[in-house]
């Protein structure tokens, strides 16, 4: 099992910076902005966006802070404070779900979660498993980034199963539910839009107890798998298995996958939809014809006299959600208000396939059936393009956005899915069958800047 360690966190001082919630960034945005400055690793310096004169200390300004000079300056100015004694943190987030993202079964108006903020070990023999596929070509460029970047800014998001804690499950429940005495939060923010952030710094003995429990359960990384893989390879290349003189680990937000839906302990997983771009040179009729060989395409009807496209898509997604235990499939939008539910009809084919779809755990997820059976088999899209959403595929977060892109001719068809469950994500990771990249969107987003830590001894 991956090792979970305590850390000496660095965090904003609310008394100096005000509303910390307005200073946080989305951890998923960190990688595209991480670029090595000219001069290589011997001349690490802050990027052009990290000047600190009179500007708000927004966490995104740390995305190019290779040498940690901005963090050091903010510490010196008292904008940040460092907890010298290592511990774990308990973070509670609550945030309304944007209306355009609420199309799909089980998507609530407000989502919340409770996460353990820790250092997660990534070295052999038991690194955390990955939920999503990686672009192999992206790992090598990320390795020098992970070696050179001075500060952990953007945490990874990991899932664990409380049930795996065995007899210590009750204690784990108590800690996550906040029923254990932890004192006042070191951060408590209530925003006008219903968002909130609360952070507790756990007492050291309680933090060590929690770290020991989590080190005995399997953990799957949902967001940040590229960071984990790059750091794992760096450690494998080192004679002593260390990176920069310390055991390799990443800053992680860890949440349970098997809590009741109303417990508020796991982020909501929002739908991510797919588009077949017009560059594929397939029109709607061609898509429908090819898919019909592998799927039953069922027209969608509603009680409305002249339903809008979005109403039909909502009805289809609801129908798909109700039938989740009966079959796997997706909603197909072909433009001009044409909506169909695609129901897989190739179970015998899949069960005898020497493909991951031959495995029950993998076949049970709609996203895998869509990619393997629809994209790769029916539409003839290459494996790499399918797994990485490369052209002629693209992703779209909102159902209205997907419909609009088809109707204006940018895409030939949209493939809309309900989101996977947290339990499904952990299961496919432990089964070593990652799902296609960019398939999972947590809500509220995992924040960058809430807790920082030095990657190297400071």
Q: Layout of SSEs?
A:
Layout: E1 4-5, E2 10-12, H1 14-17, E3 25-26, H2 30-33, H3 69-76, E4 80-82, E5 89-96, E6 110-121, E7 129-130, H4 136-148, E8 151-152, E9 156-160, H5 169-177, E10 187-190, E11 196-201, H6 204-214, E12 219-223, H7 225-237, E13 249-256, E14 268-270, E15 273-277, H8 284-291, E16 295-299, H9 309-322, E17 329-333, E18 339-344, H10 347-351, H11 360-363, H12 366-378, H13 383-388, E19 393-396, H14 399-407, E20 411-416, H15 422-430, E21 441-443, E22 447-448, E23 453-454
Parallel strand pairs: 7-12, 9-13
Antiparallel strand pairs: 1-6, 2-4, 3-22, 5-6, 5-11, 6-13, 8-23, 9-12, 10-11, 14-21, 15-19, 15-20, 16-18, 17-18, 17-20
List keywords for this structure.
single chain; alpha+beta; nine-stranded mixed beta sheet; 458 residues; six-stranded antiparallel beta sheet
Give an overview in words.
It is a single chain. The chain is 28% helix and 22% strand. It is α+β, with helices and mostly antiparallel strands. The protein has two domains: 4-269 and 442-454, no CATH class; 272-418, no CATH class. Strands 1, 5, 6, 7, 9, 10, 11, 12 and 13 form a nine-stranded mixed sheet that branches. A six-stranded antiparallel sheet has the order 16-18-17-20-15-19, with helices on both faces. The chain has a two-stranded antiparallel sheet with strand order 2-4. A hairpin with a 5-residue loop joins strand 17 and strand 18. Helix 4 (136-148) crosses helix 7 (225-237). It is globular. The two termini are 28 Å apart. Mean pLDDT is 86; it is low at 32-54.
